[in-house]
Amino acid sequence: MSTDRPLAPSPGQRIASALRRSPIYVDPSLAEAVPPARRSELLARIRRSPVPIFVIVVPLVKGGTWDDPDHLATVVHDRLREDGVYLTPDDFAGQLAARQWGGTRDAQENSRDAARVPFFQKDMKEATLADRLIRAVDLIAAGRGTAEYEKATAHLRRRRTTPGSATTDDDGLPVLPLTAAGAGVAAVAGLVVWRWRRGARVRREEHPLLLPRAVLAAAERANADELREQAAHEVVTFGELLDRTDLDAARPGVHDALTRALDAYQAAGKVLDAARGVPDLAGVLVLVDRGRDALASARSLADGGREVPPSPLCFFNPLHGDAVTTIGWRPLGQRDRLRVQTCGACASAVKAHRTPEVLTDRVDGRLVPYYEVEGGFWAETGYGQLRDDLVHRVLRGDLKARRR
Fold first, then answer.
1. DSSP letter at 91?
2. Second label for 89, Cα 20 to 30 Å away, from 131, 157, 160, 175?
3. How far apart are CA 358 and CA 341, in angstroms?
4. H or E segment at 258?
């Protein structure tokens, strides 16, 4: 007589089995986040939805059973074998994620956008997880996800130029801002514009993969809450670009460039999760910028072109935008001079023996230049200008380790 015991069901199978009884699964460790009364309310909303919706609330922990919302949704869908929307927490704090099987592409995008909306809506700032789930389910059911997402994030996409107007590059040539019309022209033409005149930078505002510098201009004017929203938006948008990327990694250099892009994306997410203030949020944008540069390089190399030269941001304040010159600079109290890349305004200030408009951090109740924070992660790395392994340091946990 065999003494073999039947194998215990896998975590994915257990969730799928529970979803066959109810479209809501909440891990016991998170039961208080979605209490029974709120589950009943959520269930009523789900039953009114024209598309099946499955809510899965489990801890997402790096190295744990589940560490990625897409992986979670995919595994459970494979076990449940029912099409519909799988709504889960995201691995970025405070956000939700949704993936839909079946339906049209527009419907799938509506569901994905609906999950992101609560994070950006002001009335959801202090909302509970249950509140956010209910809001997302309502938007999915009403088909209003994409429309509300565009509305909730409109302020993050504003440009200083008048809509429809043109700015000019260094040669006086017109450059279209990233309006819908400008994006449409680029899509119809199917082109990626490179400028390789003696190493000149790519015209970022018309390149669909590079971070528009207007994003940094808006970030510099934002308060801390607005900057956090914008940083989160840029990370999510960059992730979408990566999701849509399908390149021949066998071509020389493509695999390495894609790896750099993915590593930068992961690092940006880790910094966003741990962000305590403006210096960290600026770091998120620096990492997204690096990742987008690497992704643009991968695209160019895959198409038989050349690698896109990265465009470093201003050392004194990355939110100033591109570093256009390299200067010698001696930090206060130090004998050695550093070579740092800065924007034009900061370079002029240093040459005139004035203090540049630096990015500050709060230490013991007072604001100090970020690079004067003793033992500070950004002070040590200079946002990548003082160390060439910024992404690696973030991924191995240096940012969090310095705060313990």
1. S
2. 157
3. 13
4. helix 254-274
Q: Long-range contacts: 64-68, Cβ < 8 Å, 24+?
A: 65/11, 66/11, 67/91
Q: Is 315 helix (H, G, I), strand (E, B) or coil?
A: coil
What is the distance, to the nearest Å, from the Cα of residue 136 to the centroid of all Cα atoms in its chain? 20
Q: What is the side-by-side strand order in the sheet with 24-26? A: 24-26, 53-57, 84-89, 96-101
Mean pLDDT, to the nearest integer, of 117-139? 93
Torsion angles phi and psi, residue 359, rounded to 5: -75, 130
pLDDT in tens, 203-229: 555 566 777 666 677 777 778 888 888
Phi, psi values for residue 22, rounded to 5°? -150, 140
Query: Please, what are the domains in the chain?
Result: 11-154 (3.10.310), 181-302 (no CATH), 318-401 (no CATH)
| Cβ contact 351:327 at 8 Å | yes
The string of DSSP letters for 260-313 reads HHHHHHHHHHHHHHH--SHHHHHHHHHHHHHHHHHHHHHHHHHTT-PPPPP-PB
Sign of CA dihedral 263, 265, 271, 273: negative
Rounded to an integer, what is the distance from CA 209 to the centroid of its chain?
13
pTM check: above 0.85: no
Q: Using an 8 Å Cβ cutoff, are 326 and 341 in contact?
A: yes
Q: What element of type H or E holds 398? A: helix 398-401
Place of tokens 């007072």: 366
Radius of gyration over every alpha carbon of the chain, rounded to an integer in angstroms: 23
Question: Whats the size of the chain, residue-wise?
Answer: 404
Distances (CA, A) of 138 to 23, 150, 151, 355, 366: 15, 16, 16, 52, 45
β-pairing verdict for 53-57 and 24-26: parallel
pLDDT of 404: 56
Output the pLDDT for position 333. Answer: 65
SS3 state of residue 25: strand
